[in-house]
Protein backbone atom coordinates (compact mmCIF):
# COMPACT_ATOMS: atom_id res chain seq x y z
CA UNK A 1 0.00 0.00 0.00
CA UNK A 2 3.08 2.23 -0.02
CA UNK A 3 3.96 5.16 2.20
CA UNK A 4 0.96 6.79 3.72
CA UNK A 5 0.69 10.54 4.05
CA UNK A 6 0.48 10.36 7.83
CA UNK A 7 3.93 8.81 7.97
CA UNK A 8 5.36 11.50 5.73
CA UNK A 9 3.62 14.58 7.18
CA UNK A 10 1.97 13.67 10.46
CA UNK A 11 0.72 17.22 10.96
CA UNK A 12 -2.97 16.54 11.44
CA UNK A 13 -3.19 14.93 14.88
CA UNK A 14 -5.10 16.92 17.46
CA UNK A 15 -3.22 17.60 20.69
CA UNK A 16 -3.52 14.63 23.00
CA UNK A 17 -6.85 14.48 24.77
CA UNK A 18 -7.66 18.02 23.73
CA UNK A 19 -10.28 17.50 21.07
CA UNK A 20 -12.56 20.23 19.84
CA UNK A 21 -15.90 20.66 21.59
CA UNK A 22 -16.88 23.91 19.95
CA UNK A 23 -18.92 22.41 17.12
CA UNK A 24 -20.73 19.83 19.23
CA UNK A 25 -23.91 21.89 18.76
CA UNK A 26 -23.97 20.91 15.08
CA UNK A 27 -24.63 17.29 16.07
CA UNK A 28 -27.99 18.29 17.57
CA UNK A 29 -29.06 19.58 14.18
CA UNK A 30 -27.65 16.50 12.42
CA UNK A 31 -29.38 13.95 14.71
CA UNK A 32 -32.94 14.17 13.28
CA UNK A 33 -31.56 14.14 9.72
CA UNK A 34 -29.44 11.04 10.36
CA UNK A 35 -32.43 9.33 11.99
CA UNK A 36 -34.75 10.16 9.09
CA UNK A 37 -32.28 9.11 6.42
CA UNK A 38 -31.45 5.83 8.15
CA UNK A 39 -35.16 5.06 8.66
CA UNK A 40 -35.91 5.77 5.01
CA UNK A 41 -32.79 4.68 3.15
CA UNK A 42 -30.59 2.30 5.12
CA UNK A 43 -30.92 -1.05 3.38
CA UNK A 44 -31.62 -4.00 5.59
CA UNK A 45 -29.31 -6.91 4.95
CA UNK A 46 -31.55 -9.59 6.45
CA UNK A 47 -29.72 -12.41 8.09
CA UNK A 48 -26.58 -10.27 8.48
CA UNK A 49 -25.01 -11.17 11.83
CA UNK A 50 -22.89 -8.02 12.11
CA UNK A 51 -22.91 -4.55 10.61
CA UNK A 52 -19.76 -2.46 10.30
CA UNK A 53 -19.59 1.27 10.88
CA UNK A 54 -16.47 3.41 10.54
CA UNK A 55 -15.71 6.94 11.71
CA UNK A 56 -13.04 8.53 9.52
CA UNK A 57 -11.03 11.18 11.40
CA UNK A 58 -12.44 10.34 14.86
CA UNK A 59 -9.76 12.18 16.90
CA UNK A 60 -10.04 11.23 20.59
CA UNK A 61 -13.71 10.35 20.30
CA UNK A 62 -15.46 13.20 22.17
CA UNK A 63 -17.97 13.79 19.40
CA UNK A 64 -17.62 10.41 17.76
CA UNK A 65 -19.25 8.40 20.55
CA UNK A 66 -22.44 10.45 20.46
CA UNK A 67 -22.66 10.26 16.65
CA UNK A 68 -22.20 6.48 16.80
CA UNK A 69 -24.90 6.15 19.44
CA UNK A 70 -27.33 8.04 17.19
CA UNK A 71 -26.45 5.93 14.12
CA UNK A 72 -26.62 2.57 15.92
CA UNK A 73 -29.90 3.37 17.70
CA UNK A 74 -31.46 4.43 14.37
CA UNK A 75 -30.31 1.21 12.65
CA UNK A 76 -31.63 -0.88 15.54
CA UNK A 77 -35.02 0.86 15.39
CA UNK A 78 -35.20 0.08 11.69
CA UNK A 79 -34.60 -3.61 12.35
CA UNK A 80 -37.13 -3.65 15.21
CA UNK A 81 -39.80 -2.05 13.02
CA UNK A 82 -39.19 -4.75 10.39
CA UNK A 83 -39.33 -7.53 12.98
CA UNK A 84 -35.81 -8.56 12.06
CA UNK A 85 -33.14 -9.84 14.38
CA UNK A 86 -30.93 -6.94 15.49
CA UNK A 87 -27.38 -7.47 14.24
CA UNK A 88 -24.24 -6.92 16.29
CA UNK A 89 -22.20 -3.83 15.54
CA UNK A 90 -18.53 -3.45 14.85
CA UNK A 91 -17.11 0.08 14.92
CA UNK A 92 -13.82 1.05 13.31
CA UNK A 93 -12.22 4.24 14.59
CA UNK A 94 -9.95 5.79 12.01
CA UNK A 95 -7.48 8.61 12.37
CA UNK A 96 -3.86 9.25 11.48
CA UNK A 97 -1.20 7.04 13.08
CA UNK A 98 -0.10 9.91 15.34
CA UNK A 99 -3.62 10.26 16.81
CA UNK A 100 -4.06 9.76 20.55
CA UNK A 101 -5.91 6.43 20.32
CA UNK A 102 -5.07 5.73 24.00
CA UNK A 103 -7.31 8.59 25.10
CA UNK A 104 -10.00 7.36 22.73
CA UNK A 105 -9.96 3.81 24.06
CA UNK A 106 -9.78 4.88 27.70
CA UNK A 107 -12.86 7.09 27.27
CA UNK A 108 -15.06 4.64 25.37
CA UNK A 109 -18.61 4.69 26.80
CA UNK A 110 -18.91 1.82 29.28
CA UNK A 111 -22.50 1.11 28.20
CA UNK A 112 -21.64 0.80 24.49
CA UNK A 113 -23.23 -2.00 22.54
CA UNK A 114 -20.58 -2.42 19.86
CA UNK A 115 -17.17 -3.98 19.31
CA UNK A 116 -14.34 -1.59 18.58
CA UNK A 117 -11.11 -1.53 16.64
CA UNK A 118 -8.73 1.19 15.54
CA UNK A 119 -7.87 1.58 11.89
CA UNK A 120 -4.94 3.98 11.87
CA UNK A 121 -3.90 5.59 8.60
CA UNK A 122 -4.66 8.21 6.00
CA UNK A 123 -8.30 8.06 4.96
CA UNK A 124 -7.38 9.03 1.41
CA UNK A 125 -6.04 5.49 1.11
CA UNK A 126 -7.68 2.07 1.43
CA UNK A 127 -8.15 1.09 5.08
CA UNK A 128 -10.71 -1.74 5.11
CA UNK A 129 -11.43 -4.90 3.07
CA UNK A 130 -13.67 -4.68 0.01
CA UNK A 131 -17.45 -4.65 0.56
CA UNK A 132 -17.13 -4.78 4.34
CA UNK A 133 -18.54 -1.44 5.47
CA UNK A 134 -22.24 -0.66 5.92
CA UNK A 135 -22.11 2.88 7.27
CA UNK A 136 -19.33 5.45 6.88
CA UNK A 137 -19.22 8.61 8.95
CA UNK A 138 -16.79 11.51 8.91
CA UNK A 139 -17.13 14.75 10.82
CA UNK A 140 -14.92 17.85 10.69
CA UNK A 141 -12.01 15.99 9.11
CA UNK A 142 -12.26 16.21 5.31
CA UNK A 143 -11.25 19.87 5.25
CA UNK A 144 -7.69 18.66 5.93
CA UNK A 145 -5.79 18.44 2.65
CA UNK A 146 -3.04 15.96 1.94
CA UNK A 147 -0.84 18.95 1.10
CA UNK A 148 -1.04 22.70 0.72
CA UNK A 149 -0.70 23.54 -2.96
CA UNK A 150 2.55 25.30 -3.86
CA UNK A 151 2.33 29.00 -4.69
CA UNK A 152 -1.43 29.10 -4.25
CA UNK A 153 -3.28 31.72 -2.28
CA UNK A 154 -4.81 30.34 0.96
CA UNK A 155 -8.43 29.46 0.24
CA UNK A 156 -8.08 30.17 -3.51
CA UNK A 157 -8.60 27.99 -6.59
CA UNK A 158 -5.45 25.93 -6.00
CA UNK A 159 -6.80 24.90 -2.59
CA UNK A 160 -10.22 24.07 -4.03
CA UNK A 161 -8.57 21.85 -6.68
CA UNK A 162 -6.57 20.03 -4.00
CA UNK A 163 -9.74 19.57 -1.91
CA UNK A 164 -11.44 18.11 -4.96
CA UNK A 165 -8.58 15.66 -5.63
CA UNK A 166 -8.48 14.60 -1.97
CA UNK A 167 -12.24 14.15 -1.61
CA UNK A 168 -12.25 12.17 -4.84
CA UNK A 169 -9.57 9.81 -3.43
CA UNK A 170 -11.57 9.44 -0.20
CA UNK A 171 -14.74 8.54 -2.13
CA UNK A 172 -12.93 6.09 -4.42
CA UNK A 173 -11.49 4.20 -1.45
CA UNK A 174 -14.82 4.13 0.40
CA UNK A 175 -16.54 2.97 -2.81
CA UNK A 176 -14.43 -0.19 -2.68
CA UNK A 177 -14.86 -0.71 1.05
CA UNK A 178 -18.61 -0.14 1.26
CA UNK A 179 -21.33 -2.64 0.46
CA UNK A 180 -23.88 -1.71 -2.22
CA UNK A 181 -26.65 0.32 -0.57
CA UNK A 182 -24.42 1.38 2.34
CA UNK A 183 -24.89 4.91 3.64
CA UNK A 184 -22.29 7.60 4.27
CA UNK A 185 -22.72 10.80 6.30
CA UNK A 186 -20.19 13.57 5.79
CA UNK A 187 -20.05 16.66 7.97
CA UNK A 188 -17.68 19.28 6.64
CA UNK A 189 -17.16 22.77 8.03
CA UNK A 190 -17.69 25.31 5.30
CA UNK A 191 -18.51 28.84 4.32
CA UNK A 192 -21.59 30.48 2.77
CA UNK A 193 -21.39 31.28 -0.96
CA UNK A 194 -21.38 34.99 -0.06
CA UNK A 195 -20.04 36.62 3.07
CA UNK A 196 -18.39 39.92 3.85
CA UNK A 197 -14.77 39.36 4.80
CA UNK A 198 -14.48 42.96 6.02
CA UNK A 199 -17.23 42.59 8.60
CA UNK A 200 -17.78 38.87 9.14
CA UNK A 201 -15.67 35.80 9.78
CA UNK A 202 -15.83 32.06 9.22
CA UNK A 203 -13.76 29.00 10.05
CA UNK A 204 -11.63 30.00 7.05
CA UNK A 205 -10.67 33.29 8.75
CA UNK A 206 -8.56 31.82 11.54
CA UNK A 207 -5.31 31.67 9.60
CA UNK A 208 -4.92 35.38 8.85
CA UNK A 209 -4.71 36.57 12.49
CA UNK A 210 -2.39 33.65 13.21
CA UNK A 211 -0.08 34.73 10.41
CA UNK A 212 -0.17 38.29 11.72
CA UNK A 213 0.89 37.04 15.20
CA UNK A 214 3.75 35.14 13.59
CA UNK A 215 4.86 38.33 11.81
CA UNK A 216 4.74 40.23 15.14
CA UNK A 217 6.93 37.54 16.68
CA UNK A 218 9.36 37.63 13.74
CA UNK A 219 9.63 41.42 14.19
CA UNK A 220 10.69 40.82 17.78
CA UNK A 221 13.27 38.29 16.54
CA UNK A 222 11.49 35.27 18.04
CA UNK A 223 11.36 33.41 14.71
CA UNK A 224 12.64 33.78 11.18
CA UNK A 225 10.60 35.66 8.57
CA UNK A 226 11.62 33.13 5.92
CA UNK A 227 9.89 30.39 7.92
CA UNK A 228 6.63 32.34 7.78
CA UNK A 229 6.76 32.44 3.96
CA UNK A 230 6.89 28.65 3.81
CA UNK A 231 4.20 28.12 6.47
CA UNK A 232 0.93 26.91 4.96
CA UNK A 233 -2.18 25.45 6.51
CA UNK A 234 -3.40 22.55 4.35
CA UNK A 235 -7.13 23.06 4.89
CA UNK A 236 -9.99 24.04 2.61
CA UNK A 237 -13.51 25.01 3.63
CA UNK A 238 -15.93 24.62 0.71
CA UNK A 239 -19.29 26.22 0.16
CA UNK A 240 -22.43 24.17 -0.51
CA UNK A 241 -22.25 24.44 -4.30
CA UNK A 242 -18.56 23.50 -4.47
CA UNK A 243 -19.14 20.42 -2.34
CA UNK A 244 -22.23 19.38 -4.28
CA UNK A 245 -20.39 19.75 -7.61
CA UNK A 246 -17.62 17.39 -6.42
CA UNK A 247 -20.04 14.83 -4.97
CA UNK A 248 -22.18 14.86 -8.11
CA UNK A 249 -19.18 13.75 -10.15
CA UNK A 250 -18.89 10.51 -8.18
CA UNK A 251 -19.91 7.43 -10.12
CA UNK A 252 -20.18 5.33 -6.97
CA UNK A 253 -22.34 7.43 -4.67
CA UNK A 254 -25.68 9.13 -5.09
CA UNK A 255 -26.47 12.24 -3.08
CA UNK A 256 -29.47 11.39 -0.93
CA UNK A 257 -29.56 14.67 0.94
CA UNK A 258 -27.48 17.80 1.42
CA UNK A 259 -28.04 20.44 4.06
CA UNK A 260 -26.26 23.61 5.09
CA UNK A 261 -26.53 23.82 8.86
CA UNK A 262 -25.82 26.69 11.15
CA UNK A 263 -22.75 26.32 13.25
CA UNK A 264 -24.68 26.00 16.52
CA UNK A 265 -22.44 27.98 18.82
CA UNK A 266 -24.15 29.96 21.54
CA UNK A 267 -21.10 31.53 23.13
CA UNK A 268 -17.48 31.44 22.28
CA UNK A 269 -14.85 33.59 23.98
CA UNK A 270 -11.54 34.61 22.39
CA UNK A 271 -9.89 32.26 24.90
CA UNK A 272 -12.04 29.27 23.91
CA UNK A 273 -11.57 30.03 20.22
CA UNK A 274 -7.78 30.31 20.60
CA UNK A 275 -7.78 27.04 22.58
CA UNK A 276 -9.65 25.17 19.90
CA UNK A 277 -7.43 26.53 17.08
CA UNK A 278 -4.43 25.57 19.19
CA UNK A 279 -5.74 22.02 19.57
CA UNK A 280 -6.18 21.74 15.81
CA UNK A 281 -2.97 23.40 14.57
CA UNK A 282 -0.42 23.08 17.37
CA UNK A 283 1.23 19.90 16.07
CA UNK A 284 1.69 21.39 12.62
CA UNK A 285 2.96 24.76 13.89
CA UNK A 286 5.40 23.16 16.35
CA UNK A 287 6.74 20.97 13.57
CA UNK A 288 7.40 24.01 11.39
CA UNK A 289 8.59 26.61 13.94
CA UNK A 290 9.53 24.56 17.01
CA UNK A 291 7.70 23.85 20.28
CA UNK A 292 9.12 26.86 22.07
CA UNK A 293 6.99 29.44 20.24
CA UNK A 294 3.60 27.82 20.91
CA UNK A 295 2.63 29.37 24.28
CA UNK A 296 3.61 32.89 23.24
CA UNK A 297 1.96 32.52 19.83
CA UNK A 298 -1.41 31.45 21.19
CA UNK A 299 -1.31 34.04 23.95
CA UNK A 300 -0.85 36.71 21.27
CA UNK A 301 -3.51 35.05 19.14
CA UNK A 302 -6.06 35.13 21.97
CA UNK A 303 -5.34 38.83 22.51
CA UNK A 304 -5.67 39.57 18.81
CA UNK A 305 -9.07 37.85 18.64
CA UNK A 306 -10.28 39.59 21.81
CA UNK A 307 -9.27 42.99 20.41
CA UNK A 308 -10.89 42.45 17.01
CA UNK A 309 -14.35 44.01 16.60
CA UNK A 310 -15.12 41.35 13.97
CA UNK A 311 -14.21 38.27 16.04
CA UNK A 312 -15.68 39.71 19.25
CA UNK A 313 -19.24 39.59 17.96
CA UNK A 314 -20.63 36.04 17.82
CA UNK A 315 -23.24 36.98 15.21
CA UNK A 316 -20.42 37.77 12.80
CA UNK A 317 -19.53 34.09 12.66
CA UNK A 318 -20.89 32.86 9.32
CA UNK A 319 -19.31 29.39 9.48
CA UNK A 320 -21.66 26.67 8.27
CA UNK A 321 -21.60 22.91 8.54
CA UNK A 322 -22.23 21.07 5.31
CA UNK A 323 -23.97 17.75 5.73
CA UNK A 324 -24.08 15.25 2.88
CA UNK A 325 -25.82 11.87 3.04
CA UNK A 326 -24.59 9.59 0.26
CA UNK A 327 -25.55 6.10 -0.79
CA UNK A 328 -23.20 3.55 -2.31
CA UNK A 329 -24.77 2.85 -5.67
CA UNK A 330 -23.27 1.82 -8.92
CA UNK A 331 -24.56 4.76 -10.90
CA UNK A 332 -23.17 3.48 -14.21
CA UNK A 333 -25.06 0.17 -13.82
CA UNK A 334 -28.20 2.02 -12.74
CA UNK A 335 -28.10 4.27 -15.79
CA UNK A 336 -27.54 1.26 -18.05
CA UNK A 337 -30.44 -0.58 -16.37
CA UNK A 338 -32.73 2.42 -16.80
CA UNK A 339 -31.85 2.61 -20.50
CA UNK A 340 -32.88 -1.04 -20.91
CA UNK A 341 -36.36 -0.47 -19.44
C1 LIG B 1 -11.19 18.43 13.99
S1 LIG B 1 -10.86 16.75 14.28
C2 LIG B 1 -12.50 16.08 14.21
C3 LIG B 1 -12.71 14.99 15.18
C4 LIG B 1 -14.11 14.36 15.20
N1 LIG B 1 -14.42 13.72 13.96
C5 LIG B 1 -15.17 15.34 15.58
O1 LIG B 1 -16.13 15.53 14.82
O2 LIG B 1 -15.03 15.95 16.63
C6 LIG B 1 -10.19 16.22 12.71
C7 LIG B 1 -9.54 14.88 12.78
O3 LIG B 1 -9.33 14.40 11.45
C8 LIG B 1 -8.11 13.73 11.42
N2 LIG B 1 -7.59 13.65 10.05
C9 LIG B 1 -7.24 14.68 9.25
N3 LIG B 1 -6.78 14.23 8.08
C10 LIG B 1 -6.83 12.88 8.14
C11 LIG B 1 -6.47 11.84 7.23
N4 LIG B 1 -5.96 12.13 6.03
N5 LIG B 1 -6.67 10.55 7.60
C12 LIG B 1 -7.20 10.26 8.83
N6 LIG B 1 -7.55 11.21 9.74
C13 LIG B 1 -7.37 12.51 9.40
C14 LIG B 1 -7.24 14.57 12.35
O4 LIG B 1 -6.11 13.85 12.79
C15 LIG B 1 -8.20 14.93 13.46
O5 LIG B 1 -8.14 14.03 14.52
UniProtKB/TrEMBL annotation:
GO biological process terms on file: methylation
GO molecular function (one): metal ion binding
Protein keywords: Magnesium, Metal-binding, Methyltransferase, Transferase
UniProt keyword annotation of Endoplasmic reticulum present: no
InterPro entries with a match to the protein in the record: MeTrfase_7 (IPR005299), MeTrfase_capping (IPR042086), SAM-dependent_MTases_sf (IPR029063)
PANTHER family in UniProt: S-ADENOSYL-L-METHIONINE:CARBOXYL METHYLTRANSFERASE FAMILY PROTEIN (PTHR31009)
Record-stated family: Belongs to the methyltransferase superfamily. Type-7 methyltransferase family.
Annotated protein name in UniProt: Uncharacterized protein
Organism: Perilla frutescens var. hirtella (Perilla citriodora)
Amino acid sequence: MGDSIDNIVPHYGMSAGDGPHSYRGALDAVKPILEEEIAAKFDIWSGQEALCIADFGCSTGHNSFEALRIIIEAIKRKHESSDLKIPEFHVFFNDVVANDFNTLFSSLPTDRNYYVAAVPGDFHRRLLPPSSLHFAYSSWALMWLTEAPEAAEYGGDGYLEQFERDLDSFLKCRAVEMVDGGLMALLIPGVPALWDQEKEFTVASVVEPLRSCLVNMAEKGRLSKAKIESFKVPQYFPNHQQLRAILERSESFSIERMETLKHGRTSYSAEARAKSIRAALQTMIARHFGDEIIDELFHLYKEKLAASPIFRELNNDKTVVLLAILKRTNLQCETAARLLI
